[in-house]
Amino acid sequence: MAFKNVDYKPYKGTNAWRKITIGTWPYLGDPSIYGWVDIDADGVIETLKHYQDQNIKLSPTTITAKAVAVAIASYLPVNGVVRLGRIYQRKSVDIFLQVAPDGTGENLSGITIRDCDKKSLLEIHNEIKEKAGRIKAGDDREFEKVRKTMDLVPGWMMSKFLKFISFLQYGLNFWSPLMGSPRDGFGSAMVTSVGMLGLQRGFAPLVPYSRCPIVITVGKIEQKPIVKNGKIEVGEILPICATMDHRLIDGVGASKIFKAFSKYLEKPY
Question: Going by C-beta distance under 8 Å and a sequence separation of 6 or more, which residues neighbour residue 202?
């Protein structure tokens, strides 16, 4: 005699983004290591005010993206990709930032800032603003091509499809516009904001098919007791959480990039 293990029914609202997530993680288990740090936010806040005085609405996520790029550039062994059982090093530091085109978070896309470590905060801000505007307006051909391709892939086939595309792009290092996906779309690291959702902290998972070894989440700036000059004061901190690929990044590597990361955020502008 057999019975249902779970009483459920099919969900009819599965969109392209949800199909991708199911295909990405068909089972549990990955090489993730996690870490978080509370950054003294004085430098970030000062930088935000500096640009605000110029009527430029910079975000903590933009500043964090630049800090991540600078940190990776300071310790290039982490700027790699695992393919065919070997580690290969990327020649540029590219940072991927998530965008919610419809404002709901149900359909996510992203922007890749190439050579992010070599660009100013203003250049990064303008590039994000321009690309995000095109995506939200539906004028980004690359995003629309990816969305339409994913809509056509059946849910039961999504995992195999993503693995196949990943193998072509990274295993064989082959890319063509006909593939319907961007060239090295996720770059050296991903940066996303959970602070905009009202969360202080949150860890994001690694995305296997992206071959991206670092995922950074930016929390909400909050007040917290901190020690300054040997005294306990109420200060503002920026919570940063990181998920990293342990095959590329060990404790020593993580320590080095976080030192460079923290140093940049002391005085970003």
Answer: 194, 217, 219, 241
Taken in order 139, 142, 144, 147, the sign of the CA dihedral is negative
3-state SS assignment for residue 259: helix
Cα–Cα distances in angstroms (integers) from residue 232 to residues 42, 150, 226, 229, in the given order: 16, 52, 6, 8
Report helix, strand or coil for 173: coil
**Predicted confidence (pLDDT) per residue in 43-61, tens digit:** 999 999 999 999 999 999 9
Q: Is residue 237 within 8 Å of residue 42, measured between CB atoms?
A: no
**Residue of 59, 152, 153, 72 lying closest to 99 (CA atoms):** 59
Note the pLDDT tens digit of each residue in 168-220. Answer: 888 888 888 777 677 888 889 999 998 887 788 889 989 888 889 899 999 99
Answer for the pair 215, 190: CB distance below 8 angstroms, yes or no.
yes
Residue 27 DSSP one-character state: S
pTM of the model: 0.82
Residue type, 263: K
**Over residues 149-178, mean pLDDT:** 84
Among candidate residues 151, 140, 79, the one with its CA nearest the CA of residue 111: 140
Q: Residue 174 is encoded by which pair of tokens?
A: 């082959």
User: Domain 31-266 belongs to what architecture?
Assistant: 2-Layer Sandwich (3.30)
